[in-house]
Amino acid sequence: MSMDFSKATCPLPIMDHATIQLAHGSGGRMSADLIRRVFLPHFANPVLNLLEDQAVLELSLGRIAFSTDTYVVDPIFFPGGNIGELAINGTINDVAMSGGRPLYLSAAFVIEEGFSMESLHEIVAAMARAGKTAGILVVTGDTKVVNRGSCDKIFINTSGVGMIPEGVYLSAANLCPGDKIVLSGTIADHGMAIMTCRQGLSFQSRIESDTAALNGLTETMLEAAKGGIRAMRDPTRGGVAASLNEWAETAGAGIKIEETMIPVRPEVEAACEILGIDPLYVANEGKLLAAVAPENVQDVLAAMRDHPLGRNAVIIGEVTVDNPGLLVMTTVLGTTRIVDMPLGEQLPRIC
Amino acid sequence: MSMDFSKATCPLPIMDHATIQLAHGSGGRMSADLIRRVFLPHFANPVLNLLEDQAVLELSLGRIAFSTDTYVVDPIFFPGGNIGELAINGTINDVAMSGGRPLYLSAAFVIEEGFSMESLHEIVAAMARAGKTAGILVVTGDTKVVNRGSCDKIFINTSGVGMIPEGVYLSAANLCPGDKIVLSGTIADHGMAIMTCRQGLSFQSRIESDTAALNGLTETMLEAAKGGIRAMRDPTRGGVAASLNEWAETAGAGIKIEETMIPVRPEVEAACEILGIDPLYVANEGKLLAAVAPENVQDVLAAMRDHPLGRNAVIIGEVTVDNPGLLVMTTVLGTTRIVDMPLGEQLPRIC
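Output (structure tokens, whole complex):
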């Protein structure tokens, strides 16, 4: 027995929904509809458009950098950005800090039933813009919808793959006494943008997140450094204090920084004072630290200052033989103190 | 001014916690402690042990498969497995379905404050076992902790990277009329294990999830097929019905299957009947579909049946010129019906 179904159509209408329904995560027709209406228009590229369960990528011989991060920031829209661009930029930065050139990202969404479709559009549009700006492609993805109350609005995981150029081997283990610690700009902008937004604080100048993709800056730096960059790190959760503590521990060396050299915007400093928060521990999302051989540091600084994301780059300290494993800071008062690894959570859901 | 801090130690004790605290997601000392105590003992490998923000991988020239999935299954422990091994096996399978050999996985956790540390250990241990069984390494990760009520216990994202052997180009676009549709075993086990667990149903034989890594099976099949495999797919969310509908649509061909050929365990069939669920739409987590050229299908079947995960492999249908874009089934009664793409969500949070 056989029939001709060639003129058959789906008997159930696909409806426009103003909010996310559980069925949008079903793997069925409404999932496909969500992908076609929301994700594909923004992320369209030849790899993603195949809509296979995995992306197939052509890579040349060599080493790849691979990184993952889930973004759970609260609020999801904040001054200077939203969770979407944060998710794109953050994982690009993790790949870039290896000296790698970020190429491809995955994007996996967990969305609460009832989430606004308009907000989802806005978030995805911001992701697409951020991806274009940074020159990466989102090539594979996943969407899960959970019942109301099972997650707070939306969480986004991005994982990233990039190629590491031949001869580039960055690691905190390479740090040598005398290496200069370079910081690309003002600290604590992202964390304090989130905090002041949550607390309803306002200042004459609005505090905005510094979320940005740093892969352009790192490429410029690597070119200028002629092999003189030992390590790079984006000081996100735990801030500059956590990143430099980790470096000191990994390298088995001391790191000494000068408080007066560390740039903090006046409005950020004011907010930190009001909330009793040390900017050294506050997350950044568009800044990097680099350890650079002293003979190359001026070239690296010059290259950074020529780049829009490194205009305020400064040397904030150096690697020392003394105090192995510790981060030590000369304060504005001229005293010296240990800047310890943060123990716990100053600012939950900052990224 | 300078001081000797070489004998200084952290003045705050790191305490053992029975539950996850917000500080475990801070990027500070408690995060580091969680990584060292829970994640590293299970996942230890030379790449991960570097604890950089990204993994650096050596890959040979060629194409890589890249996939991502977030697992939000509820309950997180279920007959036959838990969310951890599901997260490892699921992403391995997505990579393997491209014909790729899965090599490296990332693991990103979103954990609710107060989650049991013992449960986390159990989940991570299951992930490590699953990874070992499948021969992959977890090389990079991320942990976020959100306030109580902001997520339901634990969500896990895994992203996977694998190498695709030269000459292997699998895609549903390759399907030709006459190709046989092969299914590796019984359907609906995973979904019905979750559902009966949620509903508190019990049967004489317990229904267990079929969660398994299929990369060993796919390698065997590719070797036996001598180029005759057009496409492979693991029918997870939306089940066999969704996967074959997607194939029919992509290929612009019809797919015709025989209901009598599709193996379903009696206890699974009984549970489906009680709950009014069609097993064709139920998620599998250790089964695959393959479209195979007719001249190679017997070799592929023989190889599958020699593998523990393909013992019940059968031909369930074929690709047709008729009914392009549609999945059509000859029922047990001898009638023919369209098996449509599932519209919505039959079974939320199944994976």
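Residues 180 and 318 of chain A are 4 Å apart (CA to CA).
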